[in-house]
Amino acid sequence: MSETVLVIGGGVGGMSAALALARSGTKVELIDADPGWRVYGAGISVTGLSLRAFDDLGILEEVRARGHIGSGMRGRAIDGSLLFEVPADTNPAPIRSSGGIMRPALHEILSSHVRRADIAVRLGLRATEITETDRAARVRFDDGSEGHYKLVVGADGIYSDTRSMLFPHANKPRFTGQGCWRAIADRPPGLDRAEMVFGGPVKLGFNPISETKLYLFVLEHVPDNRRFEPAEQVDHLKALLEPFGGYVPQIRAALGKHSLVNYRPLEWLLLPEPWFRGRVVLIGDAAHATTPHMASGAGMAVEDGLVLAEEMARTQDVGAALTSFMARRLERARLVVENSVRIGEIEMSGGDQVEANSMLGDTMARLQKPY
Ligand SMILES: Cc1cc2nc3c(=O)[nH]c(=O)nc-3n(C[C@H](O)[C@H](O)[C@H](O)COP(=O)(O)OP(=O)(O)OC[C@H]3O[C@@H](n4cnc5c(N)ncnc54)[C@H](O)[C@@H]3O)c2cc1C
Ligand 1 in contact with 324 (CB < 6 A)? Predict the structure, then answer.
């Protein structure tokens, strides 16, 4: 029987699974469809659950060095005035911290660990067929090669081809009605923690991502799911920021063609259980893609990798390991996906902001429990 695990997809979830499995002594191969193994240039917010998972994976100090880790937050009104402040702790545990980092920096940290571990990485490669024998999963690749594996981990993101092969009739990702604008800007003095602006025509937030830079995001209601051409994106974002005061006019004025601005329609998916069939399992966005309302999609993908490696280390019975993995992950993923989507619905309907905030606070508190 093959003892090797194949991970399909070298994003945050796939790399975390590969590292955690390799750390427990498993032989791991990882493939990614992108020959350049790139990630787009946006920021990412990291919440307590993501930071705890980074700590458990052994990359927390590198994330701290390349990004920003702090705690506390501020809520502001549309004119920039302070509504409330959650004080920052001194030296908080990772689960009580929050922060941000550039996606390419996080990718570099993870991929350099993968390169240093004894993990065989092949790029520009896709799996085209997965069949099961008694003792292994047989995978054919699009370069004509094939391999036999003890376990195949589909970590190929929200549009997962592995999911299509495994569950061709599964629900497709669904558009929520909101789109997310993201931009990188210089960090103004005083912006030392996450900030959210309440009461504006769109949802706006900031997060420091390094000593000098911040990541800002805007959630816009886009009922017709229209496309925004790259050439119009900066002007559209500047128009959305126009009603805001405080730091915003200065940030807005500095946005131009040179700026990193990015737009993505928000989609979600929660695959019903099981997320596995035979020796093939789905993790991360391939199984549970969420909106950024809880900024926890990446952390959930890392947790998936850690839990999968733990359960695989407990038994030689792959089916039993995947059943235990499923039992630990489904309700946690449901909590994140369903409450994130619900908060977006409240925002789009102009509903009760107090309800949305208390759902956010309650969910984040529940997510502090061990995974
Ligand atoms: C607008 C937006 C903002 C977000 N903001 C945050 C945030 O602030 N904080 C947070 O924690 N999360 C955030 N998320 C969610 C987060 O980005 C995802 O949950 C996370 O990236 C999921 O990781 P993953 O490894 O499952 O998938 P991905 O990161 O999508 O990685 C998938 C990998 O698989 C590869 N691949 C794809 N198809 C194939 C194939 N057929 N064969 C081989 N390889 C393949 C891709 O090249 C890629 O490397 C946000 C999401 C969106 C859309």
Answer: no
What topology is assigned to 176-266 in CATH?
A: D-Amino Acid Oxidase; Chain A, domain 2 (3.30.9)
Ligand 1: does its nearest atom lie under 6 Å from the Cβ of 295?
yes
Q: Considering only CA atoms, which residue is closest to atom 12 of ligand 1? A: 297
CATH of domain 4-69+97-173+268-367: 3.50.50.60
| Ligand 1 atom closest to Cα of residue 304 | 26
CA distances from 193 to 73, 74, 208, 209 (A): 6, 7, 6, 10
pLDDT in tens, 79-108: 999 999 999 998 899 999 999 999 999 999
pLDDT tens digits for range 289-341: 999 999 999 999 999 999 999 999 999 999 999 999 999 999 999 999 999 99
Hey, where are the domains in the chain? 4-69+97-173+268-367, 176-266
Task: Determine whether the shortest distance from the Cβ of 14 to ligand 1 is under 6 A.
Answer: yes
Contacts of 209 (CB under 8 A, 6+ apart): 43, 67, 68, 99, 100, 101, 102, 184, 215
173 within ligand 1 shell (Cβ under 6 A): no
